[in-house]
């Protein structure tokens, strides 16, 4: 081996070693490289920027767990003199964090009793056998369930169901492909194909010359291979569309409710903190979020459903597919799967009742247009977190199975068959609650809970250090644009960034910037904050964008270029729908066409006026 070759080999070995140690190296180098910022500038703004850049880098690169990064403010803010430890720690137990925690615990109960699978299979059995309706049957339960539970859990639950559907589709639509291995190298019976071709043409094979017989044989074989290849391509295209439908529906569904996705919860936390600072009540509740969130989510859901059909069916998009003989077999298979679940178990009924009760309590607490049950208590004492924690707490007390004296005959007699779910939930002795802390502790996404607390702490630090004001000053150049244009630009930037970073981290970083920019431009803060938060859930381009994307990508049905080609249109259309709904429906629902008087003293600005004109009207040169 020559001297140059040895040096090259050592260099490659050194690079591989550095790559394996890249995470700890980044953890050490980034703080050291940023250290001149607080040491040289010596201002609170620089110190706040140091923490924000450090946390943002760690969140994006995920060199240490996201939850650990979220704890950085607890020791850095006090050390740098930005906030006291007591002030920082208050952010980790915000009312909004408890609301999210309560909704997660209820979702764990739904998963544990398998209620979500029953809902999904029931929806699939109700749809028609055509591809477009089967696609709808896959997407709708994903969309609905992700409103109430983790979109990650929803996607993970739907993937095995999708695998079974696709296997059934392949078995009934591509039987010749499976039989190809048993009839030669290419699976074609040459003599049989030639006989069929001749019979169709009305010519006797015996009268054909040798050259004509060879030509017919070649053309027939080529046609058969082409037909099978087309069927294979069509099936592979179908697998891509069905796989993407799961992640698209799960991402869209979380937008509908305030607890459906972490960015929505983070938005509520930021708005509550901002408005409390000026002794105002934002009035953003679970009930009135549905006025904006549900229609927006539904429009995005229907748009993705139509786009996936258009991509798969192409020119057949407006046609009705009548190949019911093949697709009916898929529907029969789904009915058999649903029937195998048996009747609802006791635990499913109890969880369903608690689930519905929680939704009713959320909606009726403060529905705005009438007095809810919240008026029975002193103002500000009861929030949406109250029923969330109440329902999640009683699930640790409610039984998972009825008392022995109240059980059905087949539950008492071990000789009679019971379903797999009943077997798990019907022990022979003692009391078993619906939930145990061990189960919850294993299933709860504690990293997201800490991420929310860390985000609120970072936002507080940005405000008290003056960093938000400094950034807002630099962004005042956007004041010459219409408010809806600013909203569209911010939403588009966030939708692009969230494809490569955590949606929670993206919302946490951009929401304080949007809030301060709105105050400086004398725009209602919610006018910019709502599009920023919701667009953080629109990650349709890359597998790393959101956990549902990663789950469907891991199935092997997709490649990155498939997600990019199909998702780019979805991403842009989703942002356009969001901005339109924000500038019309949200403005009407939350009164965003006026700038609250309490915010007038936030900053001195050369911009005048307090009214945001609708998106469809002309706007004067100043706001």
UniProtKB/TrEMBL annotation:
GO cellular component, one term: membrane
Taxonomy, superkingdom: Eukaryota
Entry's family note: Belongs to the SLC13A/DASS transporter (TC 2.A.47) family. NADC subfamily.
Keywords recorded for this protein, A-Z: Membrane, Transmembrane, Transmembrane helix, Transport
Keyword Transmembrane helix: yes
Annotated GO MF terms: succinate transmembrane transporter activity
Membrane topology qualifier: Multi-pass membrane protein
Listed InterPro entries: Na/sul_symport_CS, SLC13A/DASS
Alphabetized PANTHER family for the sequence: SOLUTE CARRIER FAMILY 13 MEMBER, SOLUTE CARRIER FAMILY 13 MEMBER 2
Lineage summary: Eukaryota, Metazoa, Spiralia, Lophotrochozoa, Mollusca
Residues annotated as transmembrane: 21-41, 53-80, 92-110, 133-162, 241-266, 286-308, 341-365, 385-402, 477-497, 526-546, 566-592
Stored Pfam families: Na_sulph_symp
Protein name: Uncharacterized protein
Subcellular location: Membrane
KW Nucleotidyltransferase (keyword) present: no
């Amino acid at each position: 081996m020559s001297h140059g070759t040895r040096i090259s080999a050592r260099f490659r070995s050194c690079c591989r070693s550095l790559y394996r140690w890249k995470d700890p190296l980044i953890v050490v180098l980034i703080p050291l490289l940023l250290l001149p910022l607080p040491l040289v500038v010596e201002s609170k703004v620089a110190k706040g920027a140091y923490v924000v850049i450090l946390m943002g880098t760690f969140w994006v690169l995920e060199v240490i767990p996201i939850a650990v990064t979220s704890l950085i403010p607890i020791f850095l803010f006090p050390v740098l003199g930005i906030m006291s430890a007591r002030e920082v720690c208050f952010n980790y137990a915000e009312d909004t964090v408890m609301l999210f925690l309560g909704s997660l615990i209820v979702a764990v109960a739904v998963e544990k009793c398998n209620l979500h699978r029953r809902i999904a299979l029931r929806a699939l059995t109700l749809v028609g056998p055509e591809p477009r309706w089967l696609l709808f049957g896959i997407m709708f339960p994903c969309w609905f369930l992700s409103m109430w539970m983790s979109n990650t859990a929803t996607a993970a639950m739907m993937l095995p169901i999708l695998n079974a559907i696709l296997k059934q589709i392949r078995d009934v639509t591509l039987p010749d492909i499976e039989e190809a291995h048993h009839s030669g190298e290419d699976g074609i019976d040459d003599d049989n194909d030639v006989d069929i071709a001749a019979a169709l043409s009305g010519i006797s094979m015996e009268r054909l010359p040798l050259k004509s017989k060879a030509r017919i044989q070649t053309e027939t074989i080529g046609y058969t291979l082409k037909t099978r290849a087309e069927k294979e391509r069509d099936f592979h295209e179908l697998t891509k569309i069905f796989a993407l439908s799961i992640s698209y529906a799960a991402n869209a569904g979380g937008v509908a409710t305030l607890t459906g996705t972490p960015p929505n919860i983070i938005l509520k936390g930021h708005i509550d903190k901002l408005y409390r600072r000026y002794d105002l009540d934002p009035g953003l509740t679970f009930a009135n979020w549905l006025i904006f969130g549900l229609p927006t989510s539904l429009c995005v859901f229907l748009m993705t459903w139509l786009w996936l059909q258009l991509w798969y069916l192409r020119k057949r998009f407006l046609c009705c597919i009548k190949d019911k003989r093949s697709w009916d077999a898929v529907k029969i298979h789904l009915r058999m799967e649903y029937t195998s679940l048996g009747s609802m178990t006791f635990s499913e009924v109890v969880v369903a009742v608690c689930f519905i009760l929680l939704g009713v309590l959320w909606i009726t607490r403060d529905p705005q247009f009438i007095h809810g049950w919240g008026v029975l208590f002193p103002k500000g004492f009861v929030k949406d977190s109250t029923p969330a924690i109440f329902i999640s707490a009683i699930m640790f007390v409610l039984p998972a199975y009825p008392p022995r004296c109240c059980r059905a005959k087949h539950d008492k007699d071990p000789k009679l068959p019971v379903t797999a779910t009943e077997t798990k939930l019907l022990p022979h002795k003692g009391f078993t609650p619906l939930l145990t802390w061990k189960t919850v502790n294993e299933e709860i996404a504690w990293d997201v809970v800490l991420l929310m607390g860390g985000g609120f702490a970072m936002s507080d630090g940005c405000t008290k250090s003056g960093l938000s004001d400094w950034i807002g000053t630099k962004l005042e150049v956007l004041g010459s644009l219409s408010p809806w244009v600013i909203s569209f630009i911010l939403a588009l930037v966030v939708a692009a960034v969230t494809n490569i970073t955590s949606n929670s981290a993206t919302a946490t970083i951009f929401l304080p910037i949007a809030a301060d920019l709105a105050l400086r431009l004398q725009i209602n803060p919610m006018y910019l904050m709502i599009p920023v938060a919701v667009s953080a859930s629109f990650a349709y381009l890359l597998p790393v964008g959101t956990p549902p994307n990663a789950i469907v990508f891991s199935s092997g049905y997709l490649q990155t270029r498939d997600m990019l080609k199909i998702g780019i249109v979805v991403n842009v259309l989703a942002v356009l729908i969001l901005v339109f709904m924000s500038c019309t429906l949200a403005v009407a629902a939350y009164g965003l066409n006026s700038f609250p008087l309490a915010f007038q003293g936030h900053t001195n600005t050369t911009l005048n006026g307090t009214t945001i004109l609708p998106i469809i009207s002309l706007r004067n040169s100043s706001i």
